Amino acid sequence: MTLDVLRVFCGPDGRHGNELGVVRDGARTPAREDRQAFAAKLGFSETVFVDDPERGVIDIYTPTLRLPFAGHPCVGTAWLLDVPELVTPAGVVQARQDGEFSWITAYARWAPPRTLRRYGTAAEVDALAVPPPGEWIYAWAWEDEAAGRVRARAFPGRDDGITEDEATGAAALLLTHELGRALNITQGRGSQLLTAPGPDGEIEVGGRVRGWHPSPTD
Predict the structure, then answer these.
(1) Which terminus of the chain, N or C, has less C-beta within 10 A?
(2) How many CB atoms lie within 10 A of CB 54?
(3) Which InterPro entries did the record assign (predicted)?
C-alpha cells in the first residue's frame, strides 16, 4: 500500500489541521477487516481507502468503525485526487478547489449523530476538560455572532485513543444546518473550517489542506 498523510482544515498560518491517512491503491486491500485493522494501526481519526481514483470512489474508517461519510476525509481526499466529486456510501459528494481552499458539498443528514452543546463564551469552550467516553460532543460558542465566527472543540467519546478531534467537518455540517448560516469555525488548537448553506439542504464545507510525500507501508 502507498499512504499519503494530510492535514485537513489547517489554520491561516498553515499549522494545525486534522491528520488524515489516504491509501490511494485501496483496491489492493479489498477486505473490510484488513482495512479496519490498518486504520487502527495508523491511529488517525480517519483513514480513507481509494477504490477508484478516477471516479473518486472512497471508503472511510476510524480506528474502530467504518463510516458512510465524514467531512475532513472528503475534503482532504478531494484535494489529493483533484476530482470534481467523490462517491461515498452516503452519496455523491461534489468537490471544488478555490484558491487555497478545498470545498465539498454534502448534507447534514449524512453526518453521524453528534450532540451540539452550546456554551456562553469561547473561554468556557477553551477551558473544557475531555469528558469520559460516551456521547459524541461538539462543544461550541460564538466568538463573534454577527460575523459568524465560532469557537469549537470536538470530543468523539470513543475508547480508541482519539479523545479530542482537531477538526470535524461532519459536526460543522450539523451546526451550520442548525443555525442556518455561513460559519467561520476555529476548532481544536487552531484549525479553521468554513461553511456555507446552499439550496435544497446542501452545505459547503471548506478548508486548507497540506500534505506529505506518499510513502510505502506494509
Answers:
(1) C
(2) 8
(3) Phenazine_PhzF-like (IPR003719)
Q: 92-110 burial, b for 16+ CB within 10 Å, e for fewer?
A: ebbbeeeeebbbbbbbbeb
Longest dimension (CA), the chain: 50
State how far the Cα of 98 lies from the Cα of 92, in Å rounded to an integer.
20
Q: 195: closest CA among 72, 66, 17, 109?
A: 72
Straight-line distance from the first to the last Cα atom of the chain, in angstroms, rounded to the nearest whole number: 6
Check residue 215 and give its pLDDT: 56
Quick one: pLDDT at residue 218?
Answer: 53
* Ordered structural domains, the chain, with CATH: 2-98+209-216 (3.10.310.10), 115-204 (3.10.310.10)
Angle between helices 71-81 and 169-179 (to 10 degrees): 120
| C-alpha to C-alpha distance for 183 and 88, rounded to whole angstroms | 25
| Confidence check: pLDDT of 161 > 60 | yes
